[in-house]
Amino acid sequence: MDMEAQRFLWEGAIPLQIHLHESEVTTLPSPPPALILAPRLGCLPLLASHLKPYFSSALPPGVDTIWFEYRGMPLKWYIPTGVLFDLLCAEPERPWNLTVHFRGYPGNILIPYEGEDSIKWSFINSFKEAAYIINGNCKNVMNMCQPDQVELWRSVLNGNLEAYLRVSSKLKLGAFGEMNSSSPRSRSSMGEIDVSGQVKQGRVPVRLYVWYVIEDFDDLEDAPPIDSWDKVFYINQPVEIQGEGRCFTLHDAVKSLLPDYFVEKSLGTAESLTVGGDDKQRVSSEDASDDKKAEEEVETSCDDCVNCKG
Amino acid sequence: MSTTKSLTATKKVVIHLRATGDAPMLKQAKFKIPVMDKFAKVIDFLRRQLHRDTLFVYVNSAFSPNPDELVMDLYNNFGFDGKLVVNYACSMAWG
């Protein structure tokens, strides 16, 4: 069951329709947009190996540095594609229409991108940070032998879950210890406990992306587009799982990270909350299936967290 | 712990900047920075102070935080003795 959830995450992908920015089109007719399926766990610049050849004949002379933009907003290259999509597209757009640039890198908005190594650096450091949160240090990652380090990165790059598990299992990144419960609990509608009646507890490293909205709106379709990264924060706080027989859900996790913004309400409705003396409103919404996340998106720093049932 | 802007806007975190390897030391190594600032501000500050574009910046000599990370979260997760230790180097120190 754990593997199924993990595989589901690793195999998730977003269909993209990528348009070359008109200022960089030197051919007539302009090239049609590229249609590509992007892994949710990947980063957009990794698509360069497909996009550069596709658009190269249309580009003006010069040095390429790839960057992407959605509705005028340059996209941070180190945020995984799935997180970007869920965060910026409150109403999912399929395919997701993005604009690609190969010139004019916006160095005032985006931190420098120096190719695949930049993404690898970002990944390895996030991985170390997650290990630190789980174990109190990241020695296990720092002491990895070179071949394992290479294998770890390649497994993530290629979306190869089996290879990832082979390497990561040596690292003792289990966020969960196990504790025997004194009596079996009945199944709850939210999930299931494992057969032996054991409960799990531990610290899960979490990055919760939050979009702060000032304007009021009723439907997600009417939500104002995010036009600045100043409106987006992420909260990096580990979630403590205290197993008490019932399943610890995503809702429980988000509630523990944003306690001020959750009030009791019926499932499936969005709600605006006014905070303090400001007129600022934070919108938090969820629907019964927990499939859609509107302006909050959870990026889990450690894949082990999907071992949590529910 | 509350993360609302209104409650934490005036709180600050003590950052202790420590040079690593052959990186130059700063005259003043300890600073207070608003909790809601992103780590990018620490990186930019170091770049300006040291007049270098290429800098490797770490927390607790362990890992390089994402520039979007809030110093508040870094302090809560990795701080000790009332401060957050930030190490900086001119070349990669802990690969």
Written account of the structure:
With 310 residues, chain A is α+β, with helices and mostly antiparallel strands. Chain A has a domain of 96 residues: Ubiquitin-like (UB roll) (Roll), CATH 3.10.20.620. Chain A is 25% helix and 21% strand. Chain A contains eight helices and 13 strands. A five-stranded mixed beta sheet of chain A has the order 2-1-5-3-4. Chain A has a three-stranded antiparallel beta sheet with strand order 6-7-10. A three-stranded antiparallel beta sheet of chain A has the order 9-8-13, covered by helices on one side. In chain A, helix 6 runs antiparallel to helix 7. Chain A is globular and about 65 Å long. In chain A, 30% of the residues are buried. With 95 residues, chain B is an alpha+beta fold. Chain B is 25% helix and 24% strand. Chain B starts with a helix and ends in a 6-residue tail after the last strand. Chains A and B meet through helix 4 and strand 9 of A and helix 1 and helix 3 of B.
Keywords:
heterodimer; A: 310 residues; alpha+beta; Ubiquitin-like (UB roll); 5-stranded mixed beta sheet; 3-stranded antiparallel beta sheet; 8 helices; 13 strands; 21% strand; disordered C terminus; B: 95 residues; 4-stranded mixed beta sheet; 3 helices; 4 strands; globular; disordered N terminus; ATG5_HBR (chain A)
